[in-house]
Amino acid sequence: MSNIPKIVILGAGYGGILTAQRLQKELKYNEADVTLVNRHEYHYLTTHLHMPAAGTDSIENTRISISNLIDEFKIDLVKSSVQEIRPQEKKIILEDGTLSYDYLIIALGGEPESFGIPGLAEHAMSIRSINSVRLIRKHIEYQFAQYKNERNAQERINFVVGGAGFSGIEFVAELADRIPKLCKEYDVDPHLVNIYNIEAAPTALPGFAPELVEYAMDVLIRKGVTFKMGVAIKECTTEGVLLATGEEIKAATVVWTGGIRGNRMIEAAGFETMRGRVKVDEQLHVPGHDNVFIIGDNALIFNPEGRPYPPTAQIAMQQGVCCAQNVVASIRNQQLRKFEFTNKGTVASLGKGEGVAVIGTKLMKGWSAAQLKKVVDMRYLYTIGGITLVLKKGRFL
């Protein structure tokens, strides 16, 4: 019977794929068995999903075959959905089998956070996967197709986006860019279309300097977006949304981007959580479980000021590299590395030719920020797939 340690990675998102790639690079032959579990055969670029959702880019530019990213002689890819995590038994229950492990890396990704708003889970769509954005895109096109077939159907061309963080702002920007083309295709007067971006907080794009937030909102207002800031959605219904002010907005399309929480399977596993996220230790362990690591959306890590880092692709990637190094160090009985996040900057797209960015103390906006966004995206493609992937999936125009 083999005594080779078994490493199981759950999820092939930004953190999971970087963990897998670093493990296959650092582990020696026959030093460990590594299994990567993912429900799909592809890795998708979460930070790109707002574009195919709005219809401004192809879904094919958003997903990458996992077999092109890993060495399947070194890593066993299992296409399956995780049903249950049993840390006491060191087992993972899949929809079609069971895996045992010696070391577990949980990188499952988060879930939409509804904050208890009635009707949101039932009636709002969310940008969370390839299938969900395909649904949103087809749904938007259907509303335009139906508009002229129904009398007094203004709700067909009213679009509500809940949340003005990264996802919300980037999605309304792409949607605003798509609307004129849809109006031309379906013979709809563009002045009749309404895009509402609703945010309970007093400002959009938290973490950005006020001047960049003002610039972003001005750009989107000129594109036709109506902002309702400092106003919470009280209820989501089949007819639209009811706001805390008492105002009702009738809309056949409600897209929720108002936040994510951790994966509920982590709570069910018995780990101590805060909104589904585990406060991991400095080496990314689950407290009390030296053989279980959590990275990405499900890991709760605090910055020096005592605030939790937002779950971004950037931090998940850095966690993935650190996690792999610590798993290898654990196998070799070496000292583990302390995870320290290095913020390399933040960029938000505002649609074609527009963006805002913070790089260190430097603030950027407009065309230069939009080009930086492309550079950041292509840098990630190069990291996971080299120049071949950049040429295949990169956005150069």
CATH class of the largest domain: Alpha Beta
| Straight-line distance between termini | 55 Å
Please give the domain count.
Answer: 2
Q: What's the overall geometry?
A: globular
Largest sheet: 6 strands, mixed
Helix content: 25-40%
Structural class: alpha/beta
Strand content is 25-35%
Widest β-sheet, arrangement of strands = 5-2-1-9-22-21
DSSP strand count: 26
CATH topology of the largest domain: FAD/NAD(P)-binding domain
Nearest-integer average pLDDT? 95
**Level-2 CATH architecture of the largest domain:** 3-Layer(bba) Sandwich
Cα Rg: 22 Å
**Number of continuous helical runs:** 9
Low-confidence stretches: none
Cofactor: FAD
GO biological process, one term: aerobic electron transport chain
Family: Belongs to the NADH dehydrogenase family.
Protein name: NADH dehydrogenase
Account of the protein in words:
With 397 residues, this protein is α/β, with parallel strands linked by helices. It has 2 domains: 6-112 and 260-343, FAD/NAD(P)-binding domain, CATH 3.50.50; 120-256, FAD/NAD(P)-binding domain. 31% of the residues lie in helices and 26% in strands. The chain contains 9 helices and 26 strands. It has helices spanning 14-26, 50-54, 120-123, 130-147, 166-186, 210-222, 264-268, 313-331, 367-393; strands spanning 6-10, 33-38, 42-44, 63-65, 75-79, 82-86, 91-94, 97-100, 103-106, 111-112, 125-126, 158-162, 194-199, 225-229, 233-237, 240-243, 248-250, 253-256, 260-261, 278-279, 285-286, 289-294, 299-300, 346-349, 355-359, 362-365. The strands form 8 sheets. Strands 5-2-1-9-22-21 form a 6-stranded mixed sheet, with helices on one face. A hairpin with a 2-residue loop joins strand 15 and strand 16. The chain is globular. The chain starts with 5 loop residues before the first strand and ends with a helix. The relative contact order is 0.15. The mean pLDDT is 95.
